Amino acid sequence: MAEIQFLLNDRLIKTSSQEGLVLLDFVREHQRLTGTKIGCREGDCGACSVLIGTLEGEGVKYLPVTSCLFPLGRVHGMHVVTVEGLSKETLTPVQRAMVEHSGTQCGFCTPGFVVSMTGFALESSSVYQDDPRDAISGNICRCTGYKSIERALSEVSEQLQQKPQGSEQMAWLIEKGFVPPYFAGIPARLRAIPARRPAELTSSTSAPTVLLGGGSDLNVQRPEAIRDADVAFAQDYASTAIEEQDGFVYIGGAATMEDLNRSPLIAQTLPSIRAWMRLVASTPIRTIASIAGNLVNASPIGDVTILMLALGAEIELSAQHAQRWLPLEELYLGYKTLSKQQGEILSRLRFPSTTPQSRVNFEKVSKRTFLDIASVNAAMRLEVQGDIIQKARLSAGGVAPIPKLLRETSRWLVGQPLTGETALEAAQRAQSEVQPISDIRGSADYKRLLLRQLVMAHFAEATAIPVVKEALL
């Protein structure tokens, strides 16, 4: 077992602990940093939030993660920041704002909120520009109520209006007390940590028992098995690059949901991506969860899976020195059954670049608007010339044992005019292609009705058709 080296607050850690051990248990049980709390252990509550810093250019990019899902082996070469690493003798501006606005009652959730707000202060992109509350989207409070916490966040946001950008940002944050002075030396200290050589993946029985992308799902389903297994990480075998080549958008198999959310290329290709990703998960979970993992997990209601099906994605499966491309819809043979061979990993995916003639939309209905599993989700991509549909792909989740490409409805749409009548007929045809079941997320009849409404919503959102009110009822 290779030694794991990383910075924990201002200390260099060297450990040979199990790579599948979650970071939460390591910082609490091995390092006795108990400000990081044990809550749901499913990534929903944010009580265990920490910051993960990775080298980017000359500096370090910090993002919040739920440490109950983050495997220890992934932190090699990173900077892990717990609430104990944020303040020394005096309160930080974030902590002071929480006190002055009565943002805490029992205090159990407070460390997680403080960590996430500090991540907001360290943010150098415009990802929270529209609504700073997205910075605490992964944190819940059980007793205080959110308005006092939102007021504290608003005060912090106002202070950060004075923050310079670029290389002067960290010096300003240190001067104002948002982070301790030791943060200035973190980039150099991270560069001094030697890279680890990953084990070669093979299809033999000696291959690692578990290959983790983000572990955001597997560490909920079977955390003990992951902790005790031989673990390898997709980040060691696939890139996180998102780029455009020869009319396709390529996404590395190790790219995360948050990489997708922050990518300028994806924002240009899919202008509504940030609104859609808010429906997928909170920021800390998106920071962990990989896109390839979402696809290979084969959930019938995987949000990104449904979007990629509609976009016409193909996946690259790699094993040792061989690669093959496969249309995404051909990956799913049955419930949780894949046409992927032993030893193959999803190394890349690609979909055709959008054009001015493209119309793309994603919709999701769940019991809660945010941070919930879909009852039904759906996506559509049309290529339109004039008022005539030239190409169409419609997909849906929660209506079949697999993520469903609605082939018949998609074929029927080709050659149809962009009218309200076409939208109504497509909605009716889509219902005939699905076999939903009644479960905790809704009855079969309810899911059929949802699919009809979501197809209508696609046309209303993506094509500017004046859909009459009656059609949406």
Commentary on this structure:
The protein has 473 residues and is α+β, with helices and mostly antiparallel strands. It has two domains: 1-198, Ubiquitin-like (UB roll), CATH 3.10.20; 238-472, Uridine Diphospho-n-acetylenolpyruvylglucosamine Reductase, domain 3. Helix content is 31%, strand content 21%. The protein has 17 helices and 18 strands. The protein has a five-stranded mixed sheet. A five-stranded antiparallel sheet has the order 8-9-14-10-11. Strands 15-16-17-18 form a four-stranded antiparallel sheet, with helices on both faces. A hairpin with a 2-residue loop joins strand 1 and strand 2 (11-15). Helix 2 (93-100) packs antiparallel against helix 4 and helix 16 runs antiparallel to helix 17.
In a few lines, what is going on in this structure?
The protein folds into two domains: 1-198, Roll (Ubiquitin-like (UB roll)), CATH 3.10.20; 238-472, 2-Layer Sandwich (Uridine Diphospho-n-acetylenolpyruvylglucosamine Reductase, domain 3).
